[in-house]
Design a protein that fits this description.
two-stranded parallel ribbon, elongated
């Protein structure tokens, strides 16, 4: 019966192998923020077409039907003395019961004082700003996915470390239990070994829960089913995803790199576009004071049938052409106020541009400093793993031979766990720091500033002798 039940269970689905590059591609397709930014680009482009449309002739078709119930002309006699002249006024509008009108109206602006040109340039600057916003949204999403990807990979590593730590504690307990049976260890040492082992079990359970949450967050960003198992194929030392974005500047080229990036940052470009828009709006406000000239033409066919619908031969032509001039003479100060408002907005946008450029330089320096610190920590952390592993092996052998105490063994195991966890954190921080520097030209200000986790945020203690796996989890996953 047990065999039949085991055969009836559905097979466990194979884990989907997922690289960082594939994750970035999936996120760009599934990201709601990216779709919103693309819609903003489309909206800006349609506004540009709307602004440009005033350069071209405007053609409208008109049509109307009027039924006269009572006319002031219906009692008027059109008999002009009976001199034999024609008195057929059926084609004139006086008192006709049925009136049909079809027409075409053409309007063409000849001179608008530069208003149409300024509106078009402002709309073009809006298109550029929307495209920069799209690039910024994509870059911020890429950084968010990178953090989520390596958070999940980090927690995977922490689960492995916790499992290894539990196995080490269990092995120490078994050795102590055997020594206690033969009388070489006291009951106190046995209890200490058992407590040390049992304390690792809830930590492992919590780390597995944190890992599952990290994978669920990554799947949500990629719009993947939360139940689909994932296997992260990009390792901590694989930086190929960001090498194409540009090399990290050397120490001697930092100043030039910061100056260039400060001018190319997405917020700076958007602030420059805002200045351009306000400059053109000032021209639009000034153009309201100037005369505007336009030409128009109305072409129509009218008919006044006695009954029924008229034929084309029953219609008569009415065609006019006109030239219009509009000069504002007295507006109560409205135009002057509009121009003053536009100039104040221009001054504010220029100040914001200067402010954003300064913040962009500072944000770029912060990214470089965090990257340099992450690289230094990475090198230092990985240099201690081998030493800590060798020290634990010696301590375990000494304890097995009765040459050391359990306190020494536990302390060495904690140091090994600390070194392994700190190395995993350093690798994660280095990946995120390199991603931030690579994406920096398109990132909003402050994006990823808090992405470099400290040992305290990760749960690694600042001193040896405390378990790094017994604190808060990284990546913003609360317990």
């Amino acid at each position: 019966a047990g065999s039949v039940a085991s055969q009836a269970q559905p097979p466990t689905p194979a884990a989907r192998s997922l690289t960082l590059a594939e994750s970035l591609g999936l996120a760009e397709q599934a990201g709601e923020g990216v779709r919103i930014a693309r819609a903003e680009v489309t909206r800006a482009e349609t506004q540009r077409r709307q602004a440009r449309s005033e350069r071209f002739p405007q053609l409208d078709a008109t049509g109307s039907y009027t039924r006269t119930l009572h006319s002031e002309f219906q009692d008027v006699s059109f008999d002009f003395g009976g001199d034999g002249g024609s008195t057929d006024l059926s084609n004139l509008p006086f008192g006709q019961r049925n009136q049909y009108r079809l027409g075409l109206t053409v309007n063409q602006s000849l001179w608008s004082g530069g208003r149409i040109t300024a509106q078009t340039r402002a709309a073009e600057a809006g298109v550029g700003s929307a495209r920069v916003g799209l690039a910024a949204t994509e870059a911020e999403l890429a950084l968010t996915v990178t953090q989520a990807y390596f958070d999940a990979l980090l927690l995977d590593r922490l689960v492995n470390i916790s499992e290894a730590t539990l196995a080490q504690a269990d092995r120490a307990f078994q050795q102590t239990e055997l020594a206690h049976r033969v009388g070489n260890q006291s009951e106190f040492e046995l209890l200490r070994a058992q407590v040390a082992r049992d304390n690792e079990r809830p930590t492992l359970v919590q780390r597995r829960a944190d890992r599952d949450l990290a994978y669920a967050r990554l799947a949500q960003l990629l719009d993947l089913p939360a139940s689909e198992p994932l296997q992260l194929a990009t390792s901590f030392d694989d930086f190929t995803a960001w090498e194409a974005k540009g090399a990290v500047p050397t120490a001697g080229a930092r100043a030039d790199w910061l100056a260039q990036v400060s001018d190319e940052r997405a917020p700076v470009r958007q602030a420059q576009a805002a200045v351009t828009v306000q400059e053109q709006l000032v021209k639009v406000a000034r153009a309201q004071r100037l005369p505007s000239v336009g030409v128009s033409s109305d072409y129509g066919r009218v008919a006044y049938p006695v009954g029924g619908l008229p034929g084309w031969s029953d219609t008569r032509t009415n065609w006019t052409v006109g030239l219009g001039l509009r000069v504002p003479l007295l507006t109560g100060g409205r135009l002057a106020a509009q121009e003053g408002t536009a100039r104040a907005d221009l001054e504010a946008s220029r100040a914001r541009l200067a402010q954003v450029r300064e913040l962009a330089w500072l944000d770029g320096r912060d990214a470089l400093d965090r990257l340099a610190a992450a690289e230094a920590v990475f090198q230092a952390a990985f240099g201690t793993i081998g030493q800590a592993q060798r020290a634990y092996e010696i301590a375990e052998l000494r304890y097995k031979e009765g040459l050391s105490t359990q306190l020494e063994l536990n302390d060495t195991r904690i140091q090994l766990t600390f070194a392994q966890g700190n190395a995993a954190l350093a690798a994660r921080n280095l990946q995120v720091a390199r991603a931030r520097v690579a994406l920096l030209p398109d990132l909003p200000l402050g994006a990823g500033a808090g992405s470099i986790l400290s040992p305290a945020a990760f749960g690694v203690p600042a001193r040896a002798g405390a378990n790094p796996l017994n604190a808060t989890s990284p990546g913003g996953f609360p317990r």
